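Give me the fold.
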Amino acid sequence: MFDNNIYNDWGFKESPFSTKPLHSNETGDNLLVGRDDDIRKLALKLVSSDAAVCLDGPVGAGKTSLANVTIYKGMRNFLEKGVPSPLLLPCARTFQIKPEQSADDLKFEILIEVAQALIDNACKFQYGIKIAGSIEMNAWLNSPLINQWGEGVATILANGDGGQVNEGAGFSKSGFEKVLTNWLGKIFPDGRNGGVVCVIDNLELLEKSAEARKKIENLRDTLLTIQGIKWILCGAHGILQGVITSPRLAGYLQEPLPIKPLTLKDAGELVNRRVSFFRMECGPTPYLPLSNGDFHTLYTILQHNLRICLSYAEDYCMHISMRGLKPNSEAEKSQIFFSWLKERAKGIYEGMRPHAGQTAINLLCLAASSSDMGGEFSPGDYEKLGFSSLQAMRPHVKTLEDCGALSAQKDDLDQRRKTISITGKGWLIYWYKVTLAQD
């Protein structure tokens, strides 16, 4: 009962529909699809400037995976070519700024992970190796402090919550930061040498660009200026455009690099590559209950939101397994899949109806069908959406937000910059309304 999951039974080592970001390793490199040009641009930004790189793109487009794999490629490039190529070291974790978290607590949390990255990667490079042309890096790789730090960082992590470092480990909180920043400065004396790359993700979850600006401003003098750490900030709904307008951050953040969703062709190739990568070498012939065409259609319905698309595909696989079904032909797979998707969409739509009236649903459909809006609009578009004033439209937008069909990004300093976007759930409701509810 507990020995195999459904994907093991279908001939896979793990799910080809996992929504987790790809890691900074060879597996992530093998599985990233359709991002060659984005990798090239991101790499140039990382090695050409000390300012933080900003990635701006839709939710679920794969910004974190892109960042992680680019960092891995930078590390691999250094191992192949050596100095003077810059060394980019990945942090094992990505970070998220919590509204209630202080700048000092976030700083300590990140520095712990930076120290762990130095330890882990020194182990990967093996003690005793020599890196031509870099006395500082050889000192780092072969230092007995690495072993001491391994114990110290483990103790810090065990305490959790950014608490005081165990004095028995030989560190105080301030002492730990001093030793670490000293090491970083010696290993990476300037930006050309590279650095440990930290990714701060999901800035759009702060909801208000004014709040995001304030949080990043608080990091300016505590984290963004530490020599030997490079930064990638990821956000959606244009929140980074609001952040970079801060005068206090001028010169600290680069102009955002726009990240578009994968094309339909690349999304299909992504699934094919995962199927090939995760298939068992000695096991049953790989099987999936939905066809490539079904995945393409789902990706189109959800307006190229890869994360949500993969999530729905995995939900469907679980639905098939729980009911003991196993469609085989392409036609049978499509019939059962779209029957399930219709019921899923109907359930979401009917669940929203008691809370959102016809006016709100019409607003959603107009925003979805407008070629000018493309699923995004601002408060100033109220006339295009059939309202006489912003005040008349506002409660219906709020209702759709509460139902999860819309997501609003607020800018307290300039309401005209507010961005309202249709979510994956909203696109599924629209698909149901215009293609199925009339049947």
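The radius of gyration is 24 Å.
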